[in-house]
Each structure stands twice: as C-alpha cells, then as structure tokens.
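Hi all, long-time lurker, first post. I run a small reading group and we've been trying to get comfortable going from sequence to structure in the token notation. Rather than ask abstract questions, I figured I'd post a concrete chain and ask someone more experienced to write out its structure so we can walk through it together at our next meeting. Sequence below, copied exactly:
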Amino acid sequence: MKILKTVVIITALSASLWNCTERIELELDSTYVRMVVEGSVTTDTMAHWVRLSVTSDYFYNQSAPAVTGAEVLIDDGDKIHVLMESDTLPGWYLTSPDYHGVPGRTYTLNIRNVDINQDGAMEEYNATSRMNPVNPIDSIQLEYFNTFFTGYQVRVWAWDSPDPDWYVFKVWKNAVLITDTLYELIVQDDQFFNGNYTYGIPSQFLSDDKPEEVVNVGDTITFEINGITEDYYNYIIEAQSQVFPQTPLFSGPPANIRSNIDNDAIGFFAAYSVNYSSTIATEDIVGGGKQ
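-- Answer (accepted) --
Happy to help. Here is the structure in token form:
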C-alpha cells in the first residue's frame, strides 16, 4: 500500500511538472545601424564590385537595405580608381571592366558621402588588403570515388612557395561557379606542405547528391586557387563557424566575426591573386568508367 501511494505521488508530481509550461516572448530590441561592406579586388581583368548595405533587425524579412549615393574609391598605391554605382543593382559599386589587381600591392578601399546613423554628419570608412601572389597550377585531375556517397575529388599538382601561404579553393563546371557561397569555400594554409610540391592533393569535391555538381562526359571542370591573406583566411573560418551547427560541449562561446573595415563597420574587403586549371571529364573517369 505504501508503494502504491508513492507511485501515485510520483505520477501526480510528474504530470504537474509536465503541464507547468510558460510562453516566453523574446524581445529582440533594435540596435544601432552599422555599415556592411562586401568586396574584393583580384588579378582577373573584369569589373570588380563593392556592395554596401546596412544592418537590420533580426526579424527583418527583406533584403538588407542598400546604401546608395556613396563615393567609393580604391587606391592601389599608384592610382586611385573611382567606382560607379550600378544602375540596376542598388548599393553595388563597380570598377571599369578592364580593371585588375597586381600581386604585391596593397589596396585601400575608401567610402565617403554616407550618413549611416542619420545624424546629419557624413561618415568615412576605410579598409586595406595586401594582394599576395599565388603559384600557377601545373595540372588537375578528376577522380571518382564511391564511399558513403559518390562523386569526384579534384586533385591538384602545383608548387607551394617557401613563404607562409593561405588559400581559397573554388570549382567551376562549364564556366559556372559551383562554390558560390561563403560556406562552400575550402580554405587551407600550407602548414603541412610549405615549400613542397603537391602531388595530386585532393582540394575540392563534387557530390552526385547535388544536381549542379553531377559530372557528365564532356563537362569542363575548372579548379580556381586564390592566394589570400591570413586575415581573410581567419575571417572565412570565423564566418563558416557561425553557419555550421555548433556542438555546445566542444565549441567556443559565440563571438563577433572579425572585420577589416574601420569606423565600426562590419564585413570584409579582400585583395587576392587568382590562378586556374581545367580538365575535361572523359568516359574512363565519369562514374568510375562504368557509364
């Protein structure tokens, strides 16, 4: 009888705890508005861009508000280039189509004629980035794999310089960039192969589970390598850590991502060298030669 009484008490207590729920309304107050800067200069000859926007509230369900009417300039130490605002993309500022960076130079971005905090006083923002060189790629090769999932790894043959280097790896299929978002980028330092030759090191991957990455006979696969700065390398690592799921027991506390824009702005302006190498998918490679 005593045991039955105990069971009844425990059951009643459990039921009461189960039903003790309270609706909690999260109040995410608005904070002050900050400038957001995205942009880069590379060794490719093209119209490079800088995008300006401002921060918005957590529940703001539209695109980030664009910053228009700004003066945007890039100084390469030899000449100052004035960027023109796009007629069709508000907040996008473009160089001339024949613009390209030169390895070894330091590029300074200057943004003027903006009043982000709406106090009536114009503000100015600056960022600098050095363009590191990158060694050319000798060749690349596609290799089919079939493990937990099927796809292809891009193997790279190239020399690494004896200096410390940091890289971004990207991949194109038929002139379309596959790794077109920040979280898809593969970044790598040269800690384990500094000054050595990379004999077919796997550097990018294409999965058959993603329609845009499926490789067919005759497809042209292009591997792109970017020679970046250590600061930009760390920026990408930190940004990706905020996108990917975190493990509470092993992850560090949340922190703001670094920025190289002054005046309390967020974002990053990067200068980097680019090199490419391509290969064509043949019948003996696609599907492991079982097509």
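A couple of things your group might point at:
The chain has two domains: 35-130, 137-256+273-289.
The helical segments are 2-19, 230-243.
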